[in-house]
Design a protein that fits this description.
Layout lengths: L11 H10 L10 H11 L6 H12 L7 H13 L5 H20 L5 H15 L7
Length: 132
């Protein structure tokens, strides 16, 4: 009868957003152009900027209220994880870790995102796993 008073069910993305940003996540605040440029720099310009831009738009349209720098990290991580790019982006991922840590120190990215970035990159590229 009073359907609009019912509480919305919590989704996995809601839970993740709450874990990263707390119960009152910030509004979306990413600058797509700047995030695209930052991601391109993290990827050492190996990936075409149009492809990065399309990915930025897709990620930004989702429910995660990421900052510009968080969006750049998420974009870069998605490209680092692509099996077809593994051999091309190895050097870039080593260098990308430095800005990620610096952005964390400047409070530009959520700590959990940097931790996830590091964990996933380590698992993808840990010693002995790298293709020759």
């Amino acid at each position: 009868m009073f359907e609009f008073f019912k509480k919305k069910p919590v989704t996995a993305l809601d839970s993740m957003s709450n874990a990263v940003y707390g119960n009152a996540p910030p509004k979306k605040r990413a600058d797509l152009g700047h995030a695209t440029n930052l991601a391109s720099e993290l990827l050492m310009h190996i990936v075409d900027v149009r492809e990065i831009s399309e990915h930025a738009i897709a990620l930004d349209s989702g429910p995660i209220p990421s900052s510009t720098h968080e969006l750049a990290l998420m974009i870069a991580l998605d490209f680092f994880a692509k099996p077809t790019l593994v051999s091309n982006v190895f050097d870039a991922l080593l260098i990308a870790r430095m800005p990620a840590v610096e952005w964390y120190r400047q409070n530009l990215v959520a700590p959990m995102l940097v931790e996830t970035f590091e964990t996933i990159l380590y698992e993808l590229y840990k010693p002995g796993r790298r293709a020759a």
